Amino acid sequence: MRKIVYVLIGPKGSGKSHVGRLLEKELNISFLPIEAIFVGLQKTGISTPAIQEQGYAMVEARVLEILVTKQAVSFELTVLTPASKNLLTRLGRQTQVELIQVYAPPDICLARIRNRDQASHIEISEERIIEINRISASQQIDVRLQIDTSQLNETQILEQFTAVYGR
């Protein structure tokens, strides 16, 4: 059976990490919180193509390392950039890549960001977060599953996931 990579994509504060941790806890799908990788690479909040490529190469190595012992892994993306698209293409050559859109209304995303532990998140201004989330929300992505974390509880999220992916 082909290994599976679930990519949770959506605005900052939409609940991607929450969904990833939930899948790990309840369905034994390892979750890789990749923002922590980028926090170590950049301190400015500005992502250059070189930093993105370096970070995504690290993500790819870690995903493939996890898949040596696991059948599936998930990680989060905020926006599809050329570097993240390259990552998904490379992973798609070796695994089955499934994109899952995670979203919540902009005001809820912003409130969640204001109230979360910032230690594992890239430090950027609220104005930049709003801009990034606008870009993220405007991207047209072909997905089999959309999860609105503002409307669903954990049981409902898991039910939606298993209805689509059968785990």
Secondary structure: elements and pairs:
Layout: E1 4-9, H1 16-27, E2 30-32, H2 35-41, H3 49-66, E3 72-77, H4 82-94, E4 96-103, H5 106-115, H6 126-138, E5 145-148, H7 154-165
Parallel strand pairs: 1-3, 1-4, 2-3, 4-5
Helix pairs in contact: 3-4
Summarize the structure.
With 167 residues, this protein is of the alpha/beta class. It contains seven helices and five strands, in the order βαβααβαβααβα. A five-stranded parallel beta sheet has the order 2-3-1-4-5, sandwiched between helices.
Give a written overview of the molecule:
The chain is an alpha/beta fold and 167 residues long. The protein has one domain (4-165): Rossmann fold (3-Layer(aba) Sandwich), CATH 3.40.50.300. 51% of the residues lie in helices and 16% in strands. It is built from 7 helices and 5 strands. It has a 5-stranded parallel β-sheet with strand order 2-3-1-4-5, sandwiched between helices. α3 runs parallel beside α4. The longest helix has 18 residues, at 49-66. The protein is globular and about 45 Å long.
